[in-house]
Amino acid sequence: MIAGPDEPEDRLRRFATIWSRAVFPVTSTSLTRPELEEQLLPLARRLSRALLARGFDAGEGEAVGGALVGAHCTSPEALSRSLDCVDAYLVLYCGEDGPQEDLRARSARLQHAMAAGFARALRERTLAEQEAIAQAALRAQGVVAQALHASEARFRAVFEGAAIGIGIADLDGNVLQVNGALLRMFGGSEQNVRGRNVREWTHAEDAPQVWRLYDELVRGEREHYHVEKAFYRPDGTVLWTNLTVSLLRDADGMPQYQLALMEDTTERRLLNLRLRYEATHDALTGLPNRTLFFERLEKALNAGEGQRFGLCYLDLDGFKTINDSLGHAAGDRLLVEVADRLQSCATAPGEMVARIGGDEFVALTTGPDTQREVDELAARIMNALVAPIGVDGRELTVRGSIGVVEGPVGERSAAEVLRSADITMYRAKSAGGNRFELADPEADARAITRHGLTTALPTALDRGEFFIEYQPLVHLGDGSVRGAEALVRWLHPQHGVLGPDRFIPLAEHTGLIVPLGRWVMEQSVRQAREWRRLHGDGGTERLRINVNLSPCQLGHPSLVQDTVDILERAGVEPDALCLEVTESALIGADDDLLKPLRRLAEMGVDIALDDFGTGYSNLANLRRLPVSVLKLDRSFTQGMQQFPADPVDLKIVEGIVSLAHSLDLAVTVEGVETSAQAEQLRILGCDTAQGWYYARPGPPERLHELALVDATG
After folding, report:
1. Residue 539 confidence (pLDDT)
2. CA triplet 399, 405, 409: central angle to 5 degrees?
């Protein structure tokens, strides 16, 4: 059902209503709840736009957090309730149909930005209040000298009624006066504060500049400073504050007192820490997530000279099968157990484990001797996965493939290291899985090149970067040219001319082999028409073009119709075309797969069984295949290059030729490179051959020249 035009606005309104109901009880405002809702509605709209935007903009979340302070929602409880509402309802009401996991990740980042904006706006508001108080205090002190009685009441009203903590100390650091707000921050006992010396309030997390700034102030070298500082309360808990210290001078301008203004930021800091934890840790397993892992990896890669790093990139083998068969809840429980086991493998200093997505985990080790340590870490991970994991009463066996990267720091970026580990992991998986492989720069380069070729393939055909070379098919009886095999090449802008072994597997993997194969057939059939026009019917055999057919093309529903259309547009008979299908593609083929080939064969298109002898097929199967030509694999004829020929190869070829002819099949041999081979194959009864002995693949003009030589004898 298509949503009406007002539905998104209605959902925004419901979200704003829930939000206003949550924060109204803890907001000091003269507005009614519906009036507060109207103030929150545009903020909800900004969050919705930020959630669905193409790129993430933290400024939107910060602006919303600042606007909450502007709406007088200044209590930590108001911020906490706002973040809870965003976490629970933003994706639900504003996420539309986007990917839920990505939207929730963005919602978490928006919450963090809101908290940051809230803290900044509240700090600016507090600083303004602090400045006003400081000015009032200074004015009050100045008035004391002129009218003590009038100023004392005013100063006391400001001092005692302020919502922030205020303390006055002499230049030696002895605390002289404190207000009620500051006493409450430190636990409410006046004895714990008054009479103490400022220098006693050190904390382990004090920044180095805190006490340097303090010394400059009491020496009269600066008028004020602002820092974030922690204090120990008498009960051992920690009080975090935004602390502003100002210097008070007498009428002659000489330093006399120091004035401290404190804002309690403990709850806000804890909230920020919680949001930071949620933003940097995986919600399911509790492990560090991709964000935190990249921070640690970048820090490790920027360590000092002489340091090294080791990285293990783990992907579980067959995890999708578990999810599909037992459900995602069972898969999640398995991931939690795997995470616990991995965590127990990385307990040494400089080691960490993270989950970076799905069933992918990474383990990092750092130090001067990671060459040995990373191998041991990978072995511990493999051993940790050996024991079965119990899920819903089942014992599940878990295996994994690991890519290991190790080296000195400072040579590669974090993205390059992770890419190398990912490539190496897939190499381990391709080798059968349940193992770990060490990164190989040459293998990485090949994989990166393959990826580059894969991404360039879709546009290469449109840009006309493919061309075709033709290798002649020669009749072994009279040496005449009977046709050619079409071999596609890629003229790549960076890598030059690439043979089919470099890109055909990639084209099959991406599905581009279907349009590419159709293009090759169309160009080749046109060339066959041109050859036939030039040579006429010349002889008992007319020139024929052989085109390779991939398994993907064989199973494509438009194969027959495409072939018919190409032949009709070119205006040539079906016998001008021979489609070569590898033996391995037809192993175990059912009638549905063979039906297109049978229809093409009935039309008059020849079907050749390519690479015959390499697919371990049942020879009796030949009777049901609609083939008219066997192309014998070159591995059977290599032993004929020297004299005397290998007697085993001779017997095999002789048997295949005899079998083929008894089934009324012609035999073509590939890879003929010497005259001895050609003669021996002629004696054995092979029909046609191709190879470098006759000609290498080349442009169509070369075959025309060879055919002319045959015709003129």
Report:
1. 41
2. 150
